[in-house]
Design brief:
single chain, 103 residues, alpha/beta, Ribosomal Protein L15, Chain: K, domain 2, 3-stranded parallel sheet, 3 helices
């Protein structure tokens, strides 16, 4: 067997450096009352975001029928347009970084 096949494969792994977002569609925001300030804690409380992913991105699928102030980590262009079309506000509020394990 050639030497290259016997040696362990090591090197750069980008998985540690990727930014993961939990997606929430615009039509899911109709759950909240008119004029509400929607942020990450409120979305987790209502069950729109689950799991260990810290950052939230609003996607433009569906239609929004209420004026809301949305404060999350990222917005798609279509989601930002739909929220602002009704007079709502899009605020980019970056989540706090969780300390990583040091071993």
């Amino acid at each position: 067997m050639p030497l290259i096949r016997r040696l362990p494969k090591r090197g750069f792994n980008n998985a540690r450096h990727t930014v993961r977002y939990s997606p929430v569609n615009v039509n899911d925001l109709n759950l909240f009352d008119e004029g509400t300030r929607v942020d990450a804690t409120l979305m987790r409380k209502e069950g729109l975001v689950n799991g260990p992913v810290l950052r939230i991105k609003i996607l433009g699928k569906g239609e929004l029928s209420k004026k809301l102030t949305v404060a999350v980590d990222a917005f798609s262009a279509s989601a930002r347009a739909k929220i602002e079309k009704l007079g709502g506000v899009c605020e980019v509020a970056l989540s706090k970084k969780v300390p990583t394990k040091t071993a």
